[in-house]
Write a structure and sequence with these properties.
The chain has 74 residues and is mainly α. Helices cover 64% and strands 11% of the residues.
Length: 74
């Protein structure tokens, strides 16, 4: 994997982790403690879970596609 691919992989991985934590905290579905680096989840309705999981899964699939080389030039 070349340097630009590694950079994209890091961005995708960061999007997965930080996106999930940030969305949950911003929507009031979790409490983020910056000192302890923990997230305390509140009960979450199913439709909210679906709305939050979709972009995270998209980033995860993009990361897998990048690592596996799917869609690259032949």
């Amino acid at each position: 994997m070349n340097a630009p691919s590694r950079t994209r992989a890091a961005v995708y991985a960061g999007g997965i982790v930080m996106g999930t934590a940030g969305l949950l905290s911003a929507l009031g579905l979790a409490d983020y403690d910056a000192v302890a680096q923990t997230i305390d989840l509140h009960p979450i309705p199913l439709y909210i879970i679906i709305m939050l999981v979709t972009p995270v899964v998209g980033s995860a699939l993009a990361l897998v596609a990048l690592v596996k080389g799917w869609g690259g030039k032949k």
